[in-house]
Amino acid sequence: MSRAGLVLSLLVPLAVRAAEPEAACPPGTALREHAQEFACATPDGVGEGPFWALRDDGTVQYRGAARGGRTHGTWTSWHANGVRSKQAEYRDGVLVGDFRQWDEQGRRLYAGRHDARGEMDGTWTRWWPNGRKRTEWEMRHGSPHGAVAAWWESGARKLRGRREAGRREGRWTWWDEAGSVAAQCRYESGAVVDGRCGAEAPD
To answer: Which domain range does residue 69 map to?
Structure first.
């Protein structure tokens, strides 16, 4: 089952099951099952309402809802140990709004937002397993635009710069783990015009 474009009639006909309390299928739909995947669907097989998938041990792998055959609303997945793994918002099959990701211990790994067209937009952040920030950067409608910074796992500064329309711009600085400046250079429209740049890229 596609997470982003849930159209149940594309692949294999699904066996119709009696509605379970967990499903709460909308009127005019029925719960269908195929290979541990469950979804409410219209008689012609178009997803409408809740859908989810189970692992072999019965734990929930992911859960969401569809509207007109497309993922719509909050979509959530879980690690095998039951800890939430990812959470995203969809509108008619398009990623919009907040996106979050966690590791198996429930620690933040990744977070940001998508605009109405499904493009990364605004501030995006990655974290080290110890909870400290790893990278933070700005996006504008799918293109890197604005400040970018990175830190060593210790929390010490690693990199700082700026991008405009996806290209590096202005003064960029790199630090080693001891806190000393390791490299510094200046960009104009993505080209180095002064200084020596570091090898590390924002990750």
So the answer is: 1-94
Give the DSSP per-residue string, the chain: --SSS--GGGSSPPEEEPPPTTT-PPTT-EEEEETTEEEEE-TTS-EEEEEEEE-TTS-EEEEEEEETTEE-EEEEEE-TTS-EEEEEEEETTEEEEEEEEE-TTS-EEEEEEE-TTS-EEEEEEEE-TTSSEEEEEEEETTEEEEEEEEE-TTS-EEEEEEEETTEE-EEEEEE-TTS-EEEEEEEETTEEEEEE--S----
Q: What residue type is 86 in one-letter code? A: K
Query: Does 66 share its domain with 137?
Result: no
Total structural domains within the chain: 2
Tokens at residue 1, please? 């089952």
Is there a domain that residue 12 lies in?
Answer: yes
Digitized pLDDT (tens) for each residue of the chain, 203 residues in all: 444 444 333 223 333 333 333 558 999 999 999 999 999 999 999 999 999 999 999 999 999 999 999 999 999 999 999 999 999 999 999 999 999 999 999 999 999 999 999 999 999 999 999 999 999 999 999 999 999 999 999 999 999 999 999 999 999 999 999 999 999 999 999 999 999 999 888 76
Q: Which of 79, 94, 109 represents a domain boundary (last residue)? A: 94
Same domain, yes or no, for 127 and 161?
yes
* Same structural domain, 134 and 171: yes
